Amino acid sequence: MKRKERTFEGYQFKLRLIADFFSTVFAWFSSYFIRFFVLPGGAGDSQVLFSVLSVVAVLSTFLFLFYHNLYEAGVVARWRTELGSLFRVSVDEFVLFVVIYYYLFDMKISRVALVLYFFALFICLAIGRRICNNTIGRKVKNGKYFQRTLIVGYGKRVLDYYTSTMKKGDASRIKFVGQYLGAEKIDGLEQIQATSLAEAVDKYSADVVIIGFPPEDSDNRILATNQGIELLNTKVFLLPEIPRSYAGNEITDFYSIPAVQVNSSELSLGKRFIKRTFDIISCSLAIILLSPVYLVLALLVKLSSPGPVFFRQERVTRNGRVFRMLKFRSMRIDMPEKNGPHWTEKDDPRITRIGRLLRKTSLDEIPQFFNVLEGSMSLIGPRPERPELVEQFKKTVPGYDLRHRVKAGISGWAQVNGLRGNTSIEDRVSFDLSYIRHWTLGFDFKIVILTFFKGMINKNAY
Protein backbone atom coordinates (compact mmCIF):
# COMPACT_ATOMS: atom_id res chain seq x y z
CA MET A 1 0.00 0.00 0.00
CA LYS A 2 1.37 3.40 -0.98
CA ARG A 3 2.45 5.53 1.96
CA LYS A 4 0.27 8.55 2.68
CA GLU A 5 2.43 11.64 2.38
CA ARG A 6 2.46 14.13 5.26
CA THR A 7 1.18 17.57 4.34
CA PHE A 8 2.67 19.81 7.05
CA GLU A 9 5.05 21.63 4.73
CA GLY A 10 2.36 22.06 2.07
CA TYR A 11 -0.15 23.26 4.66
CA GLN A 12 2.23 25.98 5.89
CA PHE A 13 3.04 27.06 2.35
CA LYS A 14 -0.60 27.41 1.26
CA LEU A 15 -1.67 29.13 4.46
CA ARG A 16 1.12 31.71 4.24
CA LEU A 17 0.54 32.20 0.51
CA ILE A 18 -3.15 33.01 1.07
CA ALA A 19 -2.42 35.28 4.05
CA ASP A 20 0.27 37.21 2.14
CA PHE A 21 -2.04 37.66 -0.85
CA PHE A 22 -4.86 39.21 1.15
CA SER A 23 -2.42 41.24 3.26
CA THR A 24 -0.88 42.79 0.14
CA VAL A 25 -4.23 43.54 -1.52
CA PHE A 26 -5.60 45.08 1.68
CA ALA A 27 -2.44 47.18 2.20
CA TRP A 28 -2.50 48.46 -1.38
CA PHE A 29 -6.14 49.53 -1.49
CA SER A 30 -6.21 50.79 2.10
CA SER A 31 -3.30 53.14 1.28
CA TYR A 32 -5.30 54.39 -1.74
CA PHE A 33 -8.42 54.89 0.38
CA ILE A 34 -6.59 56.76 3.14
CA ARG A 35 -4.77 59.01 0.65
CA PHE A 36 -7.75 60.00 -1.46
CA PHE A 37 -10.74 59.72 0.88
CA VAL A 38 -9.35 60.38 4.38
CA LEU A 39 -6.44 62.79 4.04
CA PRO A 40 -7.13 66.29 2.69
CA GLY A 41 -6.43 67.10 -0.94
CA GLY A 42 -7.39 63.72 -2.42
CA ALA A 43 -9.55 63.71 -5.56
CA GLY A 44 -9.64 59.99 -6.21
CA ASP A 45 -8.83 60.42 -9.90
CA SER A 46 -6.15 57.67 -9.84
CA GLN A 47 -8.54 54.80 -9.13
CA VAL A 48 -8.04 53.04 -12.49
CA LEU A 49 -4.26 53.33 -12.26
CA PHE A 50 -4.23 52.00 -8.70
CA SER A 51 -6.46 49.06 -9.68
CA VAL A 52 -4.15 48.10 -12.55
CA LEU A 53 -1.02 48.45 -10.43
CA SER A 54 -2.49 46.22 -7.71
CA VAL A 55 -1.57 43.22 -9.87
CA VAL A 56 2.04 44.42 -10.03
CA ALA A 57 2.01 45.02 -6.26
CA VAL A 58 0.89 41.45 -5.52
CA LEU A 59 3.32 39.79 -7.95
CA SER A 60 6.33 41.85 -6.85
CA THR A 61 5.55 41.26 -3.17
CA PHE A 62 5.50 37.51 -3.75
CA LEU A 63 8.78 37.80 -5.63
CA PHE A 64 10.44 39.52 -2.66
CA LEU A 65 8.87 37.09 -0.17
CA PHE A 66 10.36 34.18 -2.08
CA TYR A 67 13.68 36.00 -2.44
CA HIS A 68 13.93 36.47 1.33
CA ASN A 69 13.15 32.76 1.90
CA LEU A 70 9.88 33.42 3.70
CA TYR A 71 8.33 30.24 2.31
CA GLU A 72 11.30 27.95 2.91
CA ALA A 73 10.91 27.08 6.61
CA GLY A 74 9.68 23.57 7.38
CA VAL A 75 8.68 24.76 10.85
CA VAL A 76 7.55 28.09 12.26
CA ALA A 77 10.49 30.51 12.13
CA ARG A 78 11.54 32.69 15.07
CA TRP A 79 9.24 35.71 15.15
CA ARG A 80 12.03 38.31 15.38
CA THR A 81 13.80 36.80 12.36
CA GLU A 82 10.60 36.63 10.33
CA LEU A 83 9.67 40.21 11.26
CA GLY A 84 13.05 41.46 10.04
CA SER A 85 12.60 39.67 6.72
CA LEU A 86 9.10 41.14 6.30
CA PHE A 87 10.49 44.63 6.87
CA ARG A 88 13.10 44.06 4.14
CA VAL A 89 10.34 42.89 1.80
CA SER A 90 8.41 46.11 2.46
CA VAL A 91 11.52 48.22 1.81
CA ASP A 92 12.24 46.39 -1.45
CA GLU A 93 8.64 46.86 -2.56
CA PHE A 94 8.70 50.59 -1.78
CA VAL A 95 11.98 51.13 -3.65
CA LEU A 96 10.66 49.18 -6.66
CA PHE A 97 7.57 51.38 -6.99
CA VAL A 98 9.52 54.59 -6.46
CA VAL A 99 12.08 53.74 -9.14
CA ILE A 100 9.82 52.19 -11.77
CA TYR A 101 6.53 54.01 -11.40
CA TYR A 102 7.73 57.43 -10.31
CA TYR A 103 10.93 58.01 -12.29
CA LEU A 104 10.40 55.85 -15.40
CA PHE A 105 6.73 56.53 -16.21
CA ASP A 106 5.00 59.75 -17.23
CA MET A 107 1.86 58.85 -15.31
CA LYS A 108 2.74 59.38 -11.65
CA ILE A 109 1.20 57.86 -8.56
CA SER A 110 0.90 59.68 -5.28
CA ARG A 111 4.08 59.78 -3.21
CA VAL A 112 1.96 59.94 -0.07
CA ALA A 113 0.13 56.80 -1.17
CA LEU A 114 3.45 55.01 -1.70
CA VAL A 115 4.65 55.91 1.80
CA LEU A 116 1.33 54.75 3.25
CA TYR A 117 1.62 51.52 1.26
CA PHE A 118 5.10 50.86 2.70
CA PHE A 119 3.85 51.06 6.29
CA ALA A 120 0.56 49.29 5.55
CA LEU A 121 2.31 46.43 3.77
CA PHE A 122 4.70 45.78 6.65
CA ILE A 123 1.92 45.91 9.24
CA CYS A 124 -0.49 43.74 7.25
CA LEU A 125 2.14 41.12 6.37
CA ALA A 126 3.25 40.99 10.00
CA ILE A 127 -0.32 40.54 11.26
CA GLY A 128 -1.06 37.92 8.61
CA ARG A 129 2.10 35.95 9.41
CA ARG A 130 1.35 36.16 13.14
CA ILE A 131 -2.09 34.69 12.58
CA CYS A 132 -0.57 31.94 10.40
CA ASN A 133 2.06 31.09 13.01
CA ASN A 134 -0.55 30.87 15.77
CA THR A 135 -2.75 28.65 13.61
CA ILE A 136 0.17 26.40 12.69
CA GLY A 137 1.30 26.26 16.32
CA ARG A 138 -2.14 25.10 17.45
CA LYS A 139 -2.16 22.38 14.79
CA VAL A 140 1.24 21.11 15.94
CA LYS A 141 0.28 21.24 19.61
CA ASN A 142 -2.90 19.27 18.95
CA GLY A 143 -0.92 16.57 17.16
CA LYS A 144 -2.40 17.33 13.75
CA TYR A 145 0.98 17.20 12.02
CA PHE A 146 3.99 15.14 13.00
CA GLN A 147 6.89 13.26 11.44
CA ARG A 148 6.77 9.49 11.72
CA THR A 149 10.42 8.66 12.37
CA LEU A 150 12.15 5.30 11.98
CA ILE A 151 15.46 4.72 13.75
CA VAL A 152 17.87 2.45 11.89
CA GLY A 153 20.79 1.09 13.89
CA TYR A 154 22.04 1.45 17.46
CA GLY A 155 24.88 2.90 19.50
CA LYS A 156 25.57 6.01 21.57
CA ARG A 157 24.81 8.56 18.85
CA VAL A 158 21.41 7.02 18.10
CA LEU A 159 20.57 6.79 21.80
CA ASP A 160 21.58 10.45 22.32
CA TYR A 161 19.35 11.51 19.46
CA TYR A 162 16.38 9.52 20.76
CA THR A 163 16.79 10.78 24.34
CA SER A 164 17.22 14.40 23.27
CA THR A 165 14.15 14.29 21.04
CA MET A 166 11.95 12.63 23.65
CA LYS A 167 12.81 15.40 26.13
CA LYS A 168 11.37 17.97 23.71
CA GLY A 169 7.99 16.23 23.80
CA ASP A 170 5.36 17.59 21.41
CA ALA A 171 7.67 20.46 20.36
CA SER A 172 9.77 18.07 18.28
CA ARG A 173 6.83 17.10 16.04
CA ILE A 174 8.25 13.57 15.99
CA LYS A 175 6.56 10.24 16.55
CA PHE A 176 8.91 7.27 16.66
CA VAL A 177 7.51 4.22 14.87
CA GLY A 178 10.26 1.76 15.79
CA GLN A 179 13.87 0.60 15.51
CA TYR A 180 15.27 -1.39 12.59
CA LEU A 181 18.58 -3.31 12.58
CA GLY A 182 18.99 -2.61 16.27
CA ALA A 183 21.57 -4.99 17.75
CA GLU A 184 21.16 -3.03 20.99
CA LYS A 185 17.50 -2.31 21.69
CA ILE A 186 16.26 1.12 22.73
CA ASP A 187 13.68 0.95 25.50
CA GLY A 188 10.26 2.08 24.37
CA LEU A 189 10.81 1.40 20.66
CA GLU A 190 9.24 -1.45 18.73
CA GLN A 191 11.75 -3.76 17.05
CA ILE A 192 10.92 -3.89 13.34
CA GLN A 193 11.41 -7.04 11.28
CA ALA A 194 11.73 -6.46 7.54
CA THR A 195 13.75 -7.74 4.59
CA SER A 196 14.87 -4.22 3.58
CA LEU A 197 14.78 -0.61 4.72
CA ALA A 198 12.23 0.20 2.00
CA GLU A 199 9.92 -2.48 3.34
CA ALA A 200 10.24 -1.16 6.90
CA VAL A 201 9.54 2.41 5.75
CA ASP A 202 6.50 1.35 3.73
CA LYS A 203 5.15 -0.90 6.48
CA TYR A 204 5.27 1.83 9.13
CA SER A 205 4.63 4.86 6.85
CA ALA A 206 7.84 6.57 7.98
CA ASP A 207 8.43 10.19 6.91
CA VAL A 208 11.98 10.37 8.30
CA VAL A 209 14.72 7.77 8.64
CA ILE A 210 17.57 8.25 11.12
CA ILE A 211 20.60 6.01 10.46
CA GLY A 212 23.31 5.49 13.06
CA PHE A 213 25.76 2.69 13.85
CA PRO A 214 28.87 2.44 16.00
CA PRO A 215 32.19 2.63 14.10
CA GLU A 216 32.80 -1.12 14.38
CA ASP A 217 29.59 -1.95 12.47
CA SER A 218 30.48 -0.33 9.17
CA ASP A 219 28.85 -3.10 7.10
CA ASN A 220 25.34 -2.38 8.37
CA ARG A 221 25.92 1.37 8.16
CA ILE A 222 26.91 1.11 4.50
CA LEU A 223 23.99 -1.23 3.76
CA ALA A 224 21.44 1.06 5.42
CA THR A 225 22.91 4.18 3.77
CA ASN A 226 22.81 2.63 0.30
CA GLN A 227 19.20 1.59 0.79
CA GLY A 228 18.35 5.02 2.23
CA ILE A 229 19.57 6.81 -0.91
CA GLU A 230 16.83 5.08 -2.91
CA LEU A 231 13.98 6.38 -0.70
CA LEU A 232 12.56 9.18 -2.82
CA ASN A 233 9.62 10.13 -0.59
CA THR A 234 11.41 9.89 2.76
CA LYS A 235 14.03 12.16 4.31
CA VAL A 236 17.09 10.16 5.34
CA PHE A 237 19.64 11.40 7.88
CA LEU A 238 22.91 9.77 8.84
CA LEU A 239 24.20 10.31 12.38
CA PRO A 240 28.00 10.23 12.14
CA GLU A 241 30.21 9.33 15.07
CA ILE A 242 31.81 12.77 15.26
CA PRO A 243 31.92 15.54 17.90
CA ARG A 244 29.17 18.14 17.69
CA SER A 245 31.80 20.83 17.07
CA TYR A 246 32.40 19.35 13.61
CA ALA A 247 28.93 20.42 12.45
CA GLY A 248 29.28 22.74 9.42
CA ASN A 249 27.97 23.37 5.94
CA GLU A 250 28.04 19.73 4.94
CA ILE A 251 26.25 18.55 8.06
CA THR A 252 22.69 19.34 9.10
CA ASP A 253 21.79 20.32 12.64
CA PHE A 254 18.80 17.99 12.87
CA TYR A 255 17.07 18.77 16.18
CA SER A 256 20.45 19.76 17.72
CA ILE A 257 22.17 16.52 16.61
CA PRO A 258 24.78 16.64 13.77
CA ALA A 259 23.34 14.60 10.88
CA VAL A 260 24.26 14.12 7.24
CA GLN A 261 21.26 14.02 4.93
CA VAL A 262 22.30 11.58 2.23
CA ASN A 263 19.49 12.25 -0.26
CA SER A 264 18.99 16.00 0.11
CA SER A 265 19.04 16.94 -3.59
CA GLU A 266 15.59 18.49 -3.78
CA LEU A 267 13.79 21.74 -4.56
CA SER A 268 11.75 23.34 -1.79
CA LEU A 269 8.05 24.13 -2.21
CA GLY A 270 8.83 27.77 -2.87
CA LYS A 271 11.35 26.96 -5.59
CA ARG A 272 8.99 24.44 -7.17
CA PHE A 273 6.28 27.11 -7.22
CA ILE A 274 8.56 29.57 -9.06
CA LYS A 275 9.76 26.88 -11.46
CA ARG A 276 6.21 25.73 -12.23
CA THR A 277 5.08 29.30 -12.92
CA PHE A 278 8.01 29.79 -15.30
CA ASP A 279 7.15 26.48 -17.03
CA ILE A 280 3.51 27.41 -17.62
CA ILE A 281 4.26 30.88 -18.97
CA SER A 282 7.21 29.90 -21.20
CA CYS A 283 5.62 26.73 -22.64
CA SER A 284 2.29 28.44 -23.32
CA LEU A 285 4.11 31.11 -25.33
CA ALA A 286 6.21 28.45 -27.10
CA ILE A 287 3.12 26.50 -28.19
CA ILE A 288 1.47 29.64 -29.56
CA LEU A 289 4.59 30.77 -31.45
CA LEU A 290 5.40 27.29 -32.77
CA SER A 291 1.86 26.37 -33.85
CA PRO A 292 2.70 26.78 -37.61
CA VAL A 293 5.78 24.58 -37.10
CA TYR A 294 3.63 21.92 -35.43
CA LEU A 295 1.31 21.82 -38.44
CA VAL A 296 4.14 21.54 -40.98
CA LEU A 297 5.99 18.82 -39.04
CA ALA A 298 2.79 16.87 -38.43
CA LEU A 299 2.13 16.83 -42.18
CA LEU A 300 5.71 15.74 -42.99
CA VAL A 301 5.59 12.92 -40.42
CA LYS A 302 2.26 11.70 -41.77
CA LEU A 303 3.57 11.66 -45.35
CA SER A 304 6.92 10.02 -44.45
CA SER A 305 5.51 6.59 -43.51
CA PRO A 306 2.28 4.94 -42.39
CA GLY A 307 1.41 5.47 -38.74
CA PRO A 308 0.37 8.12 -36.23
CA VAL A 309 1.85 11.63 -36.11
CA PHE A 310 2.79 11.41 -32.45
CA PHE A 311 4.74 8.76 -30.58
CA ARG A 312 3.98 8.13 -26.90
CA GLN A 313 6.41 6.27 -24.69
CA GLU A 314 6.51 5.57 -20.96
CA ARG A 315 9.16 7.53 -19.10
CA VAL A 316 9.95 8.24 -15.44
CA THR A 317 9.65 11.67 -13.80
CA ARG A 318 9.60 13.14 -10.26
CA ASN A 319 9.26 10.65 -7.37
CA GLY A 320 9.53 7.74 -9.81
CA ARG A 321 6.14 8.42 -11.40
CA VAL A 322 5.67 6.90 -14.86
CA PHE A 323 4.09 9.10 -17.54
CA ARG A 324 3.64 8.96 -21.32
CA MET A 325 6.07 11.33 -23.03
CA LEU A 326 4.96 12.89 -26.30
CA LYS A 327 7.17 13.16 -29.41
CA PHE A 328 6.78 13.49 -33.15
CA ARG A 329 7.09 9.96 -34.53
CA SER A 330 10.50 9.48 -36.13
CA MET A 331 10.51 5.69 -36.66
CA ARG A 332 8.60 3.15 -38.66
CA ILE A 333 5.93 1.26 -36.74
CA ASP A 334 6.37 -2.03 -38.66
CA MET A 335 9.89 -2.69 -37.28
CA PRO A 336 9.83 -3.65 -33.57
CA GLU A 337 12.74 -2.94 -31.23
CA LYS A 338 15.26 -5.79 -31.01
CA ASN A 339 17.32 -7.04 -28.06
CA GLY A 340 15.20 -5.26 -25.44
CA PRO A 341 15.11 -1.57 -24.42
CA HIS A 342 18.22 0.42 -25.36
CA TRP A 343 19.29 3.81 -26.66
CA THR A 344 18.90 4.48 -30.37
CA GLU A 345 22.10 3.74 -32.26
CA LYS A 346 23.66 5.34 -35.31
CA ASP A 347 22.12 4.28 -38.65
CA ASP A 348 19.16 2.61 -36.92
CA PRO A 349 17.07 1.20 -39.85
CA ARG A 350 13.83 2.04 -38.05
CA ILE A 351 14.37 5.81 -38.40
CA THR A 352 12.52 7.46 -41.30
CA ARG A 353 14.05 10.09 -43.55
CA ILE A 354 12.15 12.98 -41.95
CA GLY A 355 12.65 11.29 -38.57
CA ARG A 356 16.41 11.50 -38.93
CA LEU A 357 16.16 15.26 -39.49
CA LEU A 358 13.78 15.67 -36.56
CA ARG A 359 16.03 13.75 -34.19
CA LYS A 360 19.19 15.51 -35.34
CA THR A 361 17.63 18.93 -34.71
CA SER A 362 15.63 17.85 -31.63
CA LEU A 363 12.42 19.03 -33.30
CA ASP A 364 10.85 15.68 -32.44
CA GLU A 365 10.90 16.82 -28.79
CA ILE A 366 8.80 20.00 -29.11
CA PRO A 367 5.43 18.27 -28.46
CA GLN A 368 6.72 17.82 -24.91
CA PHE A 369 5.65 21.40 -24.23
CA PHE A 370 2.22 19.81 -23.76
CA ASN A 371 3.72 17.38 -21.22
CA VAL A 372 5.00 20.41 -19.32
CA LEU A 373 1.59 22.09 -19.25
CA GLU A 374 0.02 18.81 -18.18
CA GLY A 375 2.42 18.72 -15.22
CA SER A 376 4.45 15.56 -15.83
CA MET A 377 7.54 17.41 -17.11
CA SER A 378 9.39 20.69 -16.67
CA LEU A 379 10.99 22.85 -19.34
CA ILE A 380 14.41 22.25 -17.74
CA GLY A 381 15.42 19.16 -15.77
CA PRO A 382 17.05 15.73 -16.07
CA ARG A 383 16.05 13.99 -19.29
CA PRO A 384 13.57 11.15 -18.56
CA GLU A 385 14.44 7.52 -19.19
CA ARG A 386 12.28 4.48 -19.82
CA PRO A 387 11.25 2.50 -16.71
CA GLU A 388 13.25 -0.55 -17.82
CA LEU A 389 16.44 1.48 -18.19
CA VAL A 390 15.81 3.26 -14.88
CA GLU A 391 15.69 -0.07 -13.05
CA GLN A 392 18.91 -1.10 -14.79
CA PHE A 393 20.77 2.12 -13.95
CA LYS A 394 19.61 2.09 -10.32
CA LYS A 395 21.49 -1.18 -9.84
CA THR A 396 24.73 0.01 -11.42
CA VAL A 397 24.97 3.78 -10.80
CA PRO A 398 24.97 4.95 -7.15
CA GLY A 399 22.61 7.84 -6.54
CA TYR A 400 20.93 7.53 -9.93
CA ASP A 401 17.43 7.71 -8.44
CA LEU A 402 18.16 11.14 -6.93
CA ARG A 403 17.58 12.57 -10.42
CA HIS A 404 13.90 11.90 -9.77
CA ARG A 405 13.77 14.46 -6.98
CA VAL A 406 12.63 16.93 -9.67
CA LYS A 407 10.46 16.64 -12.75
CA ALA A 408 12.05 15.40 -15.94
CA GLY A 409 12.89 18.15 -18.43
CA ILE A 410 12.78 18.79 -22.16
CA SER A 411 16.36 20.04 -21.90
CA GLY A 412 18.87 19.86 -19.08
CA TRP A 413 22.30 20.77 -17.75
CA ALA A 414 23.74 17.45 -18.92
CA GLN A 415 22.36 17.89 -22.45
CA VAL A 416 23.82 21.36 -23.01
CA ASN A 417 27.17 19.93 -21.89
CA GLY A 418 27.11 17.39 -24.71
CA LEU A 419 25.77 14.39 -22.78
CA ARG A 420 23.13 13.09 -25.18
CA GLY A 421 22.53 9.69 -26.70
CA ASN A 422 24.92 6.87 -25.88
CA THR A 423 27.17 8.80 -23.47
CA SER A 424 28.35 8.17 -19.89
CA ILE A 425 25.37 7.76 -17.57
CA GLU A 426 27.63 8.49 -14.57
CA ASP A 427 28.54 11.88 -16.04
CA ARG A 428 24.88 12.61 -16.72
CA VAL A 429 23.94 11.87 -13.12
CA SER A 430 26.75 14.14 -11.91
CA PHE A 431 25.49 17.07 -14.02
CA ASP A 432 21.85 16.41 -13.14
CA LEU A 433 22.51 16.38 -9.39
CA SER A 434 24.64 19.51 -9.70
CA TYR A 435 21.69 21.20 -11.42
CA ILE A 436 19.28 20.22 -8.63
CA ARG A 437 21.62 21.38 -5.86
CA HIS A 438 22.33 24.76 -7.48
CA TRP A 439 18.95 25.50 -9.04
CA THR A 440 17.87 29.09 -9.54
CA LEU A 441 15.50 30.65 -12.04
CA GLY A 442 18.55 32.26 -13.64
CA PHE A 443 20.10 28.81 -14.05
CA ASP A 444 17.02 27.71 -16.01
CA PHE A 445 17.25 30.79 -18.24
CA LYS A 446 20.92 30.00 -18.87
CA ILE A 447 20.13 26.41 -19.93
CA VAL A 448 17.30 27.61 -22.20
CA ILE A 449 19.72 29.92 -24.02
CA LEU A 450 22.46 27.28 -24.19
CA THR A 451 19.95 24.78 -25.58
CA PHE A 452 19.64 26.81 -28.78
CA PHE A 453 23.43 26.82 -29.27
CA LYS A 454 24.53 23.47 -27.81
CA GLY A 455 21.55 21.31 -26.93
CA MET A 456 19.40 21.06 -30.06
CA ILE A 457 21.99 19.80 -32.55
CA ASN A 458 24.43 17.21 -31.20
CA LYS A 459 26.68 14.60 -32.78
CA ASN A 460 25.31 11.95 -30.38
CA ALA A 461 21.66 12.57 -31.34
CA TYR A 462 20.71 9.71 -33.66
Spatial gap, N to C terminus: 41 Å
What share of the residues lie within helices?
A: 40-55%
Contiguous low-pLDDT stretches (5 residues minimum) are: 1-6
Q: What's the quaternary structure here?
A: single chain
Report strand %.
5-15%
Radius of gyration: 27 Å
Query: What characteristic shape results from the CA principal axes?
Result: flat
Number of strands: 11
Write down the secondary-structure element order. Answer: HHHHEHEEHEHEEEHHEEHHEHEHHH
**Content-based structural category:** alpha/beta
Tally of separate helices: 15
**Overall pLDDT score:** 84
Largest sheet: 7 strands, mixed
Number of domains: 3
Q: What is the strand arrangement across the widest sheet?
A: 3-2-1-4-5-7-6
Report on this model:
- The protein is of the alpha/beta class and 462 residues long.
- The chain has three domains: 8-141, no CATH class; 147-261, 3-Layer(aba) Sandwich (Rossmann fold); 269-455, no CATH class.
- It has helices at 8-38, 47-67, 79-103, 111-141, 156-168, 197-204, 218-229, 269-289, 291-304, 353-361, 368-374, 387-396, 413-416, 425-437, 441-455, and strands spanning 147-153, 174-180, 191-192, 208-212, 235-238, 252-254, 257-261, 310-316, 322-328, 377-380, 408-411.
- It has a seven-stranded mixed beta sheet with strand order 3-2-1-4-5-7-6. Strands 8-9 form a two-stranded antiparallel ribbon.
- Helix 1 (8-38) runs antiparallel to helix 4 (111-141), helix 3 runs antiparallel to helix 4 and helix 8 packs across helix 11.
- It is flat, with a radius of gyration of 27 Å.
- The two termini are 41 Å apart.
